Amino acid sequence: MTEAFARNADHLVRLWLRAGSLERAGRADAAAEAWRCLALAARDLLAGGPQTPPVRRARALAEELLEEPGRAVEASARLIEAVAGLDSAGDEDSGRDEARARGAAVRLLLGVLCALVLGGSVLLFSRFYEPRRIAYTRADMDGLAAFLVKAGQGMGSLEQLTANGCSECPCRDRGPVGAMPRGDVCRANWDKALRAAYRAVHGGEPAGPNGQDLIPSAWKRDAWGGPYLLDENAWTLRSAGPDGIPGNADDIVLPLRPQ
What we know:
The chain is mainly alpha-helical. Helices cover about 60% and strands about 5% of the residues. The protein has a 3-stranded antiparallel β-sheet. It is globular and about 55 Å long.
């Protein structure tokens, strides 16, 4: 599968971890909603996939998770295993055989299950998966930074572009940015800045003929689900990194000031 598929598969695993954590904490209603979000996200991810038996099986498991919430723990584990198998298998022409794909899927599943069983610790999961997330985020930020520099040059400054001196400032000292709800000022500021940059570069709104959003989904959030953070005065683009908290050592920061 493509890198975009792999990033979305990463997002499914994050949803799965969150649902399992809520289940263990005894928050039944919140856990039920988290399982439902996982199923819907998986169904959306697979909707445009090829009509192959593995994809159809994964879709069926997503529907099962929606229809049988009482078996959510078992059904979700099987769903994650199926999606991980698709991620590992790659395209049919990649030369990887089915056994190798299954093995990779099982290793991923067991790694995450161990993290869940060990008192909710995500240490094992992080060691297994975090380097991949960091690499995806760095690659996305390279393209995004070039886009923002181009937009800022056309406007004279980033502050003029976004009408904001520091879009990231409301995100500071408030905990993990990935946990901030949709509509929060932190997420809204990034969305506003990204759309302003698109208008500056392309001369119009980021909407296709059928109303689809033309902004790449990978530019809207980093691999940990948080918005990117833009400081217009400092000319910096930031991901808050694995812990989601801006301003510490695991942040990924790129300069945007034109050379």
